[in-house]
Automatic annotation (TrEMBL):
It comes from Rhododendron simsii (Sims's rhododendron). GO terms for molecular function: ATP binding; protein kinase activity. This is Protein kinase domain-containing protein. It is a single-pass type I membrane protein. Keywords: Glycoprotein, Leucine-rich repeat, Membrane, Repeat, Signal, Transmembrane, Transmembrane helix.
Length: 631
């Protein structure tokens, strides 16, 4: 291009901009939101589908334009939805003037350039979908200023580069974050809500590493030839050379690395192309010796041809409508980790603007790898038969030699522990006495059913407030039933070293001590080699009940006598402390419930008797709590 032709092009561009400005200035009838949208139209260099033809400066309002939605009362623009229009151009900074905008969807176009930083002015924005474009530059850290962004942030299938900003950890956990298939690099920040994202949020970025991806970040020390513990490449696994051996007593480095996606862990979103072949079959199974009732169980046999492994996906709840393919396409978010494995919140079948079906998928820890299919099938189906309104329902499971998944219903409102004590970034909510009594009665009914529903005399084995899930109506659900048997190789006995403290001073609710399941564990089970029993479940329930009555964490009291909350409350009653010094301070004003609270304390103390023979059965506990309601 000659200097003359370049000068002419610049002149034409300037003249065009001046003509647009003159046109906009003369269009005094068009609303300010309409003028901002015309700036977007001006930034579009190609509109082959004529999506913006109806956008005219002569209109008084843009509310009838293609892709635009307005508030009926204020006539302010609340949504821009122009996906799949083959639009080329860039995002103008004038979009920041649409202060009532709640949804911006420009996916599947050919927009290029960076995201303007001014977009952080859209304080009412809840959904931002710019996926499948040609956008580039670094991920704007300013997006964290979109404080109402809680639905979707989808920047996938673009050309963004650089690292994931650690500030993105401040996004709410419920936000659906999607950064797939960009050119992002570096380690995923292990902070905030980023820890709750599944691998689907980050896959397709070859130079991105760290949890929850299955790619290790390079360790500078490990690459030092003078470091005796450096990691050597694994010749048997050239695609993942970082997983090898460490010269530390012959330990494998892989033994301390949690492989989030392995084998059928594609169920949480990582799909091995051309690796899956589905074969469905229906089989009849005899259920019970009496009546010879027959049921149909849907099985999906999956052959992972790349690994030469086979697995089975079995639906145990006939009301479960999701197929394995739905889970393969789903978005997944880490919501919990424990010795039994990792739990994901999986949102399957989400369409445009749809909520999608939500389930919980627990990936069992690798200690369960010794299970044979028939044994695992019998154990899981026994779990599936334990159904009660206060027990989380098992919906399906997947078995392979190196991967085992449990699919259950997802309870949305968090755990009882969070309801009582709050989360890391949120204060604890106020639970009335009526709500606490209702929760306690529901837990008791569910645990009673576990104990009485089968001649096998089931034991839960890990009752604690974090295992009690609540829905929006504060209806309690016991989770984790059956995991104590499924996860083998983890110690079922505990030998804690509890440090003694000054016995002369009693302090309720001292500063938090690191949580430990040992506080919920009955004394007789803390002895090495002992077994979990139904009476140890009763003890654990008693600790949960004391937790609900006092509002204190179960570790309270360790600073005083080393024995925890149960000993602290028992001592307070022995010394005839005023009730106001024992119960949760938020319940002090509920004077009418004093007799009920005292009765509940007596139930809890009976449950936590040191001698298991003295403790009541859960049926007795359940009846006692139900009588409190009628007092």
């Amino acid at each position: 291009m000659t200097i003359s032709s370049l000068t002419n092009s610049i002149a034409i561009s300037i003249i065009s901009s001046l003509l647009l400005f003159t046109s906009l200035s003369s269009s005094s009838s068009l609303s300010p939101d309409g003028l901002s949208l015309l700036a977007l139209k001006s930034a579009i260099s190609s509109d082959p589908t004529h999506a913006l033809t109806s956008w005219s400066s002569t209109d008084p309002t843009p509310c009838h334009w293609t892709g635009i939605t307005c508030d009926h009362t204020t006539q302010l623009v609340t949504s821009i939805s122009l996906p799949n229009k083959a639009l080329s151009g860039y995002l103008p900074s004038e979009l920041a003037s649409l202060l009532s905008l709640r949804r911006l969807s420009l996916s599947n176009n050919s927009l290029s350039g960076p995201i303007p930083t001014q977009i952080s002015s859209l304080q009412k924005l809840t959904h931002l979908d710019l996926s499948s474009n040609l956008l580039s530059g670094s991920l704007p850290e300013c997006l964290i200023n979109l404080t109402h962004l809680a639905g979707t942030l989808n920047l996938s299938y673009n050309r963004f580069s650089g690292e994931v900003p650690p500030a993105y950890g401040r996004f709410p956990v419920e936000l659906s974050l999607d950064l797939r298939h960009n050119n992002l690099t570096g380690k995923i920040p292990q902070v905030g809500s980023l820890l709750n994202q599944g691998p689907t949020a980050f896959s397709g970025n070859p130079n991105l590493c760290g949890f929850p991806l299955n790619s290790l970040c390079p360790d500078p020390e490990a690459q030092n030839p003078n470091n005796p513990n450096r990691v050597f490449s694994n010749p048997e696994n050239p695609r993942n050379p970082g997983v090898g051996f460490v010269s530390d007593g012959g330990r494998k480095n892989g033994s301390v690395i949690v492989s989030v996606v392995s084998g059928i862990a594609v169920v949480i979103g990582v799909v091995f192309v051309s690796a899956l072949v589905f074969r469905r079959k229906w089989r009849r199974s005899e259920e019970g010796r009496m009546g010879r009732e027959e049921k149909l169980e849907k099985e999906v046999e999956v052959e992972v041809s790349e690994e030469g492994q086979k697995g089975k996906f079995v639906v145990v709840d006939e009301g479960f409508g999701l197929e394995l393919e739905d889970l393969l396409r789903a978005s997944a978010y880490v919501v919990g980790k424990s010795r039994s494995g990792i739990v994901y919140r999986v949102v399957a079948g989400r369409g445009s603007g749809g909520a999608g079906a939500m389930v919980a998928v627990r990936r069992l820890s690798e200690a369960d790898a010794t299970w044979r299919f028939k044994e695992f099938e019998a154990e899981v189906e026994a779990i599936g038969r334990v159904q009660h309104p206060n027990i989380v329902r098992l919906r399906a499971y997947y078995y392979a030699s190196d991967e085992k998944l449990l699919v259950s219903e997802f309870i949305r409102n968090g755990s009882l522990y969070t309801a009582l004590h709050g989360g890391p970034a949120e204060p604890s909510p106020l639970l009335s006495w009526a709500a606490r009594l209702k929760i306690a009665q529901g837990i008791a009914r569910g645990l009673t059913h576990i104990h009485e529903c089968s001649p096998r005399k089931h034991v839960h084995g890990n009752i604690k407030s974090s295992k009690i899930l609540l829905d929006d109506d504060l209806h309690p659900y016991i989770s984790g039933f059956g995991l104590a048997r499924l996860v083998q190789g983890t110690s079922k006995s505990i030998n804690p070293a509890l440090k003694k403290h000054n016995l002369n001073q009693v302090t309720l609710c001292p500063k938090s001590i690191p949580s430990s399941s040992v506080i919920y564990t009955a004394p007789e089970v803390r002895v090495l080699g002992s077994k979990l029993t139904q009476k140890s479940d009763v003890y654990s329930f008693g600790i949960v009940l004391l937790e609900m009555l006092t509002g204190c964490s179960p570790e309270s009291g360790l600073e005083n006598d080393g024995k925890g909350l149960e000993s602290l409350v028992r001592r307070a009653f022995r010394e005839e402390k005023p009730l106001s010094e024992i119960i949760d301070s938020t319940l002090v004003h509920e004077v009418h419930a004093k007799k009920q609270v005292i009765a509940a304390f007596h139930v809890a103390l009976n449950c936590t008797e040191p001698d298991p023979e003295v403790r009541p059965r859960m049926r007795t506990v359940c009846d006692s709590l139900d009588r409190i309601k009628s007092q």
